[in-house]
Design goal:
single chain; about 150 residues; alpha+beta; 4-stranded mixed β-sheet; 6 helices; about 15% strand
Length: about 150
């Protein structure tokens, strides 16, 4: 009985230490993140250094840009969405090649984006002109389809 209690105590200490190390590691990774949050979903943490997921736009920044009647291409995505993981490697380099300043909006971290911009699924690419939505394209598309859509809306 005494050995079981000691063993159980050791297991609890080990799990506690693992939780602490994991939490500490994640807090170090999230320090200075573009989301301005102290805690991020693990899927977002994995993408912090990925070049495909730079140029983030925060909800307040997008609200301000639209209030100022600015133009924008905004890519609404989720780091846990398999369709987004397939779309980003096609869309992001294409937008860059076309000289498009593609803003990325992470709906996993900022869930209000679903309602604020009537996002029904990810990936969704929205074109705003003069602060108003003028067009959107939803789902995984071919590079050619994205290119034609961007040309039509540029």
């Amino acid at each position: 009985m005494k050995k079981a209690i000691i063993f159980l105590g050791i297991v609890i200490v080990i799990f506690g230490a693992l939780a602490f190390v994991t939490n500490y590691s994640n807090s170090e990774k999230t320090e200075g993140n573009p989301y301005g949050k102290s805690s991020l979903d693990p899927a977002t943490i994995e993408q912090l250094d990925d070049p495909l997921y730079q140029n983030q736009i925060l909800p307040d920044e997008l609200d301000e840009a639209l209030s100022n009647e600015e133009d924008a291409f905004v890519y609404f995505y989720s780091p846990t969405c398999i369709h987004c993981k397939n779309t980003s490697p096609v869309l992001v380099p294409l937008a860059e090649d076309m000289g498009i300043d593609l803003k990325k909006y992470n709906v996993l971290e900022f869930e209000q984006g679903w309602n604020d911009y009537r996002i029904e699924s990810t990936p969704t690419l929205v074109r705003f002109k003069d602060g108003k939505e003028v067009d959107r394209i939803v789902g995984t598309q071919t590079e050619d389809t994205f290119k034609q859509w961007i040309e039509k809306n540029d």
